[in-house]
Specification:
Helix content: 25-40%
Shape: elongated
Structural class: alpha+beta
Strand content: 15-25%
Order of helices and strands: EHHEEHEHEEEEEHHHHH
Number of helices: 9
Largest sheet: 4 strands, mixed
Distance between the termini: 59 Å
């Protein structure tokens, strides 16, 4: 039996791996051999995914990996908007927001980007997305994901500019925006000093 099968999930950190290899005198050597055998993949230092019992047969959640790579963080911006089907494009880079420093990671399973936001703006609108196996990951609500996207766009000041950006640049359907929770948007925006973001509420109320 492959020793890493003792690890319950396919995405895990150094602590879980060390615990699984505690019976080995030289765990680092064992980790190297598992990687060379294609049974273990190092995403970045301290973060791993394992195969499903066959060499290089990896099955994992990019969303869970994104939370593990750099935290605290939650998935947001383009990736979250695509995840919910709010924007039509498929997004390859997993975009997240953190209250720490901005970071970018290029890994064997793709790119992960983390934009920095004030900790006062961080918690409202962040959800725990539960998966079928009981695990989950932190992700922005559709409202929060769009607000984050608008927040990082520096040249959107007026209501007209925002409407053009939402409906033309992002190609979000008006039917999708109409479904947004205005009360949640107000809660999210309450601590923000960027008053131009309030135009989002006005745009929704006009639809």
């Amino acid at each position: 039996m492959n020793i890493i099968e003792n690890i319950k999930f396919n995405e895990f950190d150094q602590l879980a791996l060390t615990s699984a290899l505690k019976s080995y005198k030289y765990p680092k050597d064992k980790i190297t051999s598992l990687i060379e055998a294609g049974l273990l993949l190092r995403v970045k230092r301290g973060i791993y995914i394992k195969s499903k019992g066959e060499k290089n047969n990896f099955f994992y959640s990019k969303e869970i990996v994104a939370n593990l790579i750099y935290g605290p963080s939650y998935i947001s911006l383009e990736y979250a908007l695509s995840f919910y089907g709010v924007i039509p494009e498929r997004v390859e880079v997993v975009t997240s927001v953190t209250n720490k420093r901005k970071k970018n990671f290029s890994t064997p399973i793709g790119s992960f980007s983390y934009s920095a936001i004030n900790k006062l703006y961080y918690p409202a609108g962040v959800l725990w997305q539960k998966m079928d196996d009981g695990r989950g990951f932190f992700i922005a609500s559709p409202e929060k994901a769009l607000i984050d996207k608008l927040y990082f766009e520096e040249k959107i000041y007026t209501q007209q500019e925002m409407a053009q950006y939402i409906f033309q640049n992002l190609r979000i359907e008006k039917t999708s925006i109409k479904e947004f929770n205005v009360n949640l948007i107000k809660e999210i925006l309450f601590p923000y000093k960027k008053k131009s973001l309030l135009n989002l509420i006005k745009i929704i109320e006009k639809l």
